[in-house]
Design brief:
The structure holds 2 protein chains of 2 kinds. Chain A is mostly helical. Chain A contains 4 helices and no strands. By secondary structure, chain B is of the alpha/beta class. Chain B folds into 2 domains: 244 residues, Thiolase/Chalcone synthase (Peroxisomal Thiolase, Chain A, domain 1, 3-Layer(aba) Sandwich); 151 residues, Peroxisomal Thiolase, Chain A, domain 1 (3-Layer(aba) Sandwich). The two termini of chain B are 18 Å apart. Classes of the chains: A mainly alpha, B alpha/beta.
Chain lengths: 78, 414
């Protein structure tokens, strides 16, 4: 499964949003209705799925779906 | 000037039925809600039975995201709140929001959530604790989520007084309205701790029935063969409304709250004092608050846990308070059918007390075949419900830590 597809499936499940809402530039807070706790949980799910660790500083920089995908790629996730 | 407080809505989720109608029909026909534990592998536990909520579809009341994040006790409270608000045909407008509040008691809150999160620590370390662990576990989050859903911006609270929590919630909400701090209150109790830690911990106290081979007969208040209480889960909520507020909007009025008493045993962390003098003072305080004589009470919905000590001490306390009137008084324990919902008990039993007044039926104490002689001569309405013109009900609950609460409800007369 492509990285993008996997990321979007996790976001849909965690935030209860539709595939159509999950465009790359969608902001978690402004477009997908997430609060800070939602984002923490989402990132934990990403860590679990992709076997990586995301620091709080890195977490602060993640605002959109594209940010997550770019970040995972820098961590070598394919 | 103390204002009159009416009951205008009911909601319940119990092991005997998932609505007020179903639960009431269940207890009036003497149906037990107790069965084998299905929620977890209880093979290593001494007690293998409980009163679980069955055939309940949470997705009618919460979405998938909420279901994953909320502990069951929060989901149950939202479900009962939905039923209660619908039953009362009540919606709180922006202009009324600050005069509407919610008090929902819970003995333990999200114990199962804490249990799961501890497993996460052991499995993968503290970084794997959910950010929703605390808001799922805090006992006041049942009231919190109900306030969010129904825009209740007035008083909010969560009495944590063990098995009396639900009654404290209703009584305290009654006072909020009586003393003009609010016009409408959602009030009651909830519990959802059929989980390994709770069953194991109550087992360690030797408090639970171990009648594993005969679950429906395990909860047998006032019977000689009782061997402890049966842990169960559930929620009971009521809408309390100020007299004029209710009448002006043409609300259906179920009953009126007449009085409320609370006392502390100041005796022992778990055991009642001999003769249950704390309960005696509590029932007396409620009667005084209602400006009623003992002779005016028709029915007592007893705490009646099916534990060896509670039942004889409560019966003795009732005889002390009511004197000669016990020959005309009906006393029953609906815990014989629902099991003991801990914080939920006071809420659900208040709902049953209201229905007894509305329908003129007193639900029975089932599994009562050999009344404990130590409980003395009381009419416990054994095994079969009884028709009676019930004008007044006293609902008793007594919690660990010596926290006692008693409510008196009466038929509504304008």
């Amino acid at each position: 499964m492509a990285l993008e597809t996997k990321v979007i499936e996790i976001i849909m499940e965690q935030l209860g949003v539709t595939r159509e809402e999950c465009v790359p530039e969608a902001s978690f807070v402004d477009d997908l209705g997430a609060d800070s706790l939602d984002i923490v949980e989402l990132i934990m799910e990403m860590e679990e799925n992709f076997g990586i660790q995301i620091s709080d500083d890195e977490l602060d920089k993640i605002r959109t779906i594209q940010d997550v995908i770019d970040f995972l790629k820098t961590k070598g996730v394919k | 000037m103390k204002r009159r407080v009416l009951i205008t809505g009911l909601g319940a989720l119990t092991p005997v039925g998932n609505s007020v109608g179903e639960a009431w029909e269940g207890v009036c026909s003497g149906r037990s809600g107790i069965g084998p534990i299905t929620r977890f592998d209880c093979s290593a536990h001494e007690t293998k039975i409980a009163g679980e909520i069955k055939n309940f579809d949470p997705l009618v009341h919460v979405n998938k995201k909420e279901l994953r994040r909320y502990d069951d006790f929060i989901v149950y409270a939202l479900a009962a709140a939905d039923m209660t608000m619908e039953d009362a045909a009540l919606s709180i407008g922006t202009d009324q929001a600050e005069r509407a509040g919610v008090i929902i008691g819970s003995a333990i809150g999200g114990l199962h959530t804490l249990e799961k999160e501890k497993e996460n620590i052991l499995r993968a370390g503290p970084r794997k604790i959910s950010p929703f662990a605390i808001p799922a576990a805090l006992a006041n989050l049942a009231a919190g989520h109900v306030s969010i859903r129904y825009h209740l911006k007035g008083p909010i609270n969560c009495p944590v007084t063990a098995c009396a929590s639900g009654t404290y919630a209703i009584g305290d909400a009654f006072r909020m309205i009586a003393w003009d701090y609010a016009d409408v209150m959602v009030a009651g109790g909830v519990e959802a701790v059929v989980c390994p830690l709770a069953i194991g911990a109550f087992n360690a106290m030797r408090a639970l029935s171990k009648r594993n081979d005969d679950p429906e007969r395990a909860s047998r208040p006032f019977d000689t063969d009782r061997d402890g209480f049966v842990l169960s889960e559930g929620c009971g909520l009521l809408i309390l409304e100020e007299y004029h507020h209710a009448l002006n909007r043409g609300a259906k009025v179920y009953a009126e709250i007449a009085g409320y008493g609370i006392t502390s045993d100041a005796f022992h962390m778990a055991a009642p004092p001999p003769g249950h003098e704390g309960a005696v003072r509590c029932m007396t305080a409620a009667l005084r608050d209602a400006a009623m004589l003992p002779e005016e009470i028709d029915y007592v919905n007893a705490h009646g846990t099916s534990t060896p000590l509670n039942d004889i001490y409560e019966a003795e306390a009732i005889r002390t308070v009511f004197g000669d009137h016990v020959s005309r008084l009906l006393v029953s324990s609906t815990k014989s059918m629902t099991g003991h919902m801990l914080g939920g008990a006071g809420g659900v039993e208040a709902v049953f007390s209201v229905k007894a007044i509305e329908e003129g039926i007193v639900p029975p104490t089932i599994n009562l075949h050999h009344p404990d002689p130590a409980a003395g001569a009381l009419d416990f309405v054994p095994n079969i419900a009884r028709k009676k013109d019930v004008r007044t009900v006293m609902s008793n609950t007594f919690g660990f830590g010596g926290a006692n609460a008693v409510l008196i409800l009466k038929k509504f007369e304008p």
